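Researcher: Sequence recovery benchmark, item below. Answer with residues only.
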């Protein structure tokens, strides 16, 4: 139930029409969805559900089908490995770790977009990774609140 609710909220955040001037500083809400699940609820994370959740995000962002699935799998793997250590530190340090992992995801995204014939700007992907890492703390609070509303037991963190 929590997965569906957080996915719907994420898709709604993706679909909100933001001003074009905000495009540079807009976080990647789909990636924040995966980061939260991989760090805070990794015991309930399913790669199959992540693959299914990536399809509407590929459609919403206009990327090749499967690109977000590749990025989500990479993020889930790295953050599940780092999860026990990262959950024990404060949100600022968590944001730094999230930024470093998002840089790897940006490199994978750049590679995938280049293979599909797009001409992505790597610097824009790095800026988006930075903005996404800065948005980690408020999105974590939002997803924790949604998990509490759906009745999921709370995870003990710092």
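Model:
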């Amino acid at each position: 139930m929590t997965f569906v609710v957080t996915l719907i909220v994420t898709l709604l955040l993706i679909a909100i029409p933001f001003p074009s001037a905000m495009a540079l500083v807009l976080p990647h809400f789909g990636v924040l969805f995966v980061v939260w699940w991989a760090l805070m609820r990794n015991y309930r994370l399913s790669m199959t559900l992540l693959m299914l959740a990536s399809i509407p995000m590929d459609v919403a962002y206009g990327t090749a089908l499967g690109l977000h699935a590749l990025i989500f799998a990479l993020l889930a793997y790295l953050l599940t490995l780092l999860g026990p250590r990262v959950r024990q530190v404060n949100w600022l340090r968590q944001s730094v770790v999230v930024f470093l992992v998002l840089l790897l995801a940006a490199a994978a995204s750049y590679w995938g977009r280049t293979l599909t014939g797009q001409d992505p700007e790597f610097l824009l992907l790095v800026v988006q990774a930075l903005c996404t890492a800065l948005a980690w703390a408020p999105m974590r609070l939002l997803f924790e609140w949604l998990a509490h509303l759906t009745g999921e037991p709370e995870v003990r963190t710092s």
